Amino acid sequence: MTDRPDIDLKLRAGLPDDLRFLVEKYPRSDWSSHDNIQGMAAFWLQRHDMFREVGAMLTDGITDYREGRKSAPDFAQWFAPRLNFFLGNLDGHHNVEDQHYFPVFAKAEARLKRGFDILDGDHHQIHDALGLNAETANVFLRALRESEDRQRFAADAYAEANQSLVAMLARHLDDEEDLIIPLILDRGDAALEP
What is the DSSP-derived secondary structure letter of residue 6? Predict the structure, then answer.
């Protein structure tokens, strides 16, 4: 982790300008009509949308519980499988990116190597946040069998950990898409297969 606002996931507002040359050539508004959007690019965007959707579900779910719209037993039954799905898939997705795709993409366009290093650093920050998220979720799930005060405290701690993770993830997914999707559109799937 670094305190540089141009690369730190918690501080940056987007990719540094020197890494945006392909997204300027292929802006988001044009992605859906590009010939190379099918295949790898479409799959990448679908996976990212799924992470956004499940992250929002978990955020909405904890809000529903905290505001009394779900009972503790109902919430626990709803929450645990979705959290496990989210954390497990996110960790697996990042491992595949780090070990397979990022090295191939960085080799295909050397000017983007620093961007893939930034994204790899993001994965370490997100991994730490995943650990904290799982830890606070487990404390919260155990607290659902305890006093209301304990439940509220644990729910607040989980909500804070979840909010932090979802915010980091949103920034990371946007930046990753801005780096990767234009590269795929520019080169095509065949040139970028690991």
Answer: T
Cβ atoms within 10 Å of 176's Cβ, excluding its own: 22
Q: Residue ranges of the alpha helices (H) in the chain?
A: 21-25, 28-31, 40-66, 72-96, 102-108, 113-143, 148-187
Q: Residue 55 carries which side chain, given as an amino acid letter?
A: G
- With vertex at residue 89, the alpha carbon angle to CA 178 and CA 15, rounded to the nearest 5 degrees, is 20
Cα dist. 59→66, 74, 86, 160, 165 in Å? Answer: 11, 16, 12, 10, 10
Q: H or E stretch including 188?
A: none
Cβ atoms of 121 and 129 within 8 Å: the answer is no
Per residue in 89-134, pLDDT (tens digit) is 998 999 899 999 999 999 999 999 999 999 999 999 999 999 999 9
| Domains in the chain: ranges and CATH | 42-192 (1.20.120.520)
In three-state secondary structure terms, 20 is coil
**114 backbone dihedrals φ, ψ, rounded to 5°:** -60, -35
131 by DSSP, 3-state: which?
Answer: helix
